[in-house]
Request: fold
Amino acid sequence: MADAGQFTIKVADGKMDVSEGLTGEPVCKVAASAESFSKILSGELNPMMAMMTGKLKISNPGEMLKYAKIFGLM
Reply:
């Protein structure tokens, strides 16, 4: 499966905005192959296991935990 691309997600005032490409200075970067990310979202791959095996890379896990529910990871 080809990589799906790069996106910027901004969460502010209870709203989430997604745009294609990278903009601004990130507070938290999340990287995964399109296949791994798809499996995480579908529940086939546990996010914690993906992190431990290097399939999911998060630059600031503490920050990501704040938003894990929004992304369906918890």
Observations:
- The radius of gyration is 12 Å.
- Residues 7-67 form a domain with the Nonspecific Lipid-transfer Protein; Chain A fold (CATH 3.30.1050.10).
- Residues 39 and 45 are 5 Å apart (CA to CA).
